[in-house]
Design brief:
Order of helices and strands: EHHEEHHEHEEHEHEHEHEHEHEH
Strand order of the largest sheet: 3-2-1-4-5-6
CATH superfamily of the largest domain: Glycogen Phosphorylase B
Number of domains: 2
Strand content: 15-25%
Distance between the termini: 42 Å
Helix content: 25-40%
Largest sheet: 6 strands, parallel
């Protein structure tokens, strides 16, 4: 059986889809799995042991230059690759028009997505031949994704945690400094989701006083924020270099602990087995929290409402002292 997954982005969402890919590939009936993904996130998909074919797309870049010759050529090449794979089934866990159209492009006889209540864009349903409603116990996005296994008649391993250790198979072991390194991940992908910069700076100072070596990690468009936190925190808090996704995985794997909000690198750290402290101030960790045996979640008052939506009730805050206590406990358990 050939199946194509259309989870294009983003970092954390792709990580939350790994368990679905693993479960599809692990069944008794052989499955050849293709995955359509935005080109910046190709390193999260192409080396995955469950993925036979990774098909990169560049929808953001193509939208900026829709009439360009290169856009038409690349779009045609990606469509041809999906069609040549000739899937029996297309599964779209993302629930957006931009992902659902790739299920339609595949010309798979069956194209599956989530029901209206569980997908972000209703128009995506025009590309499906069938939709599924997750059972009530599927509250976390990983389990919502896993509920799509019903399309192939398999039980869903609810509660599964993403496993990103395959990203380190060919990587050199990270170097160790004289002090135990902890990663601070201050940026998030949404307005209002971030723990305050001054809180990260204060946590950095407390970590230095405790003999740890905090490093502020940043991604595209986040350098100014990271530089400001490192400068405010003062001596002993350093700025990480620019990293690719594979380099980020190696950097995080060399830390004794990671602290961050609802952001993709936090989910990556948890999937790598790094002790992780996740600070949630605006999203519901019952639905979106990182999963793993070494994860501690700190939620602002009213956030952990358990309603199964990304956004949750506001109000309250996460104290720096609470984050420091969780950091020390996590680092001590390394």
């Amino acid at each position: 059986m050939r199946i194509v997954l259309t989870r294009l982005s983003a970092l954390g969402d792709i990580i939350h889809t790994w368990p679905l890919a693993e479960a599809l590939a692990a069944g008794r009936e052989p499955v050849e799995l293709a995955w359509v993904v935005e080109e910046p996130f190709l390193p999260l998909v192409a080396p995955h042991p469950a993925v036979a074919l990774a098909i990169p797309v560049a929808t953001r870049r193509w939208r900026r230059h829709p009439a360009a010759v290169a856009t038409r050529r690349e779009l045609a090449g990606a469509r041809a690759a999906v069609r040549e794979f000739s899937p029996d089934l297309a599964i779209d866990p993302q629930g957006l028009v931009k992902s659902a159209v790739w299920a339609a492009f595949s010309r798979a006889p069956e194209r599956l997505g989530l029901d209206r209540a569980h997908r972000r864009e209703l128009l995506a349903g025009l590309c499906y031949t069938r939709t599924l409603a997750p059972p009530p116990q599927a509250r976390h996005v990983v389990d919502i994704n896993l509920s799509l296994l019903a399309a192939v008649g398999r039980p869903a391993p609810f509660g599964a945690a993403p496993d990103g250790r395959f990203l380190l198979l060919d990587a050199a072991a990270p170097g160790r400094g004289s002090a135990a390194r902890v990663a601070l991940l201050p940026a998030t992908g949404g307005v209002g989701k971030a723990w305050p910069a001054e809180s990260f700076a204060a946590l950095g100072r407390m970590a230095v006083a405790a003999g740890l070596a905090p490093v502020v990690v940043w991604g595209p468009g986040e350098k100014a924020l990271a530089e400001g936190i490192a400068a405010e925190a003062g001596r002993g808090v350093t700025l990480a270099p620019a990293t690719s996704i594979p380099e980020l995985a190696v950097l995080l794997s060399g830390c004794v602990a990671v602290v961050g909000g609802d952001t993709g690198p936090v989910h990556l750290a948890a999937a790598l087995g790094v002790p992780t402290v996740a600070v949630f101030v605006a999203t519901d960790p019952v639905r979106n929290g990182p999963r793993g045996e070494r994860v501690r979640i700190l939620a602002a008052t009213g956030v952990a409402a358990g309603r199964g939506r990304a956004r949750a009730a506001g109000g309250g805050e996460v104290r720096v002292e609470a984050a420091f206590e969780a950091l020390i406990a996590s680092a001590a358990a390394t």
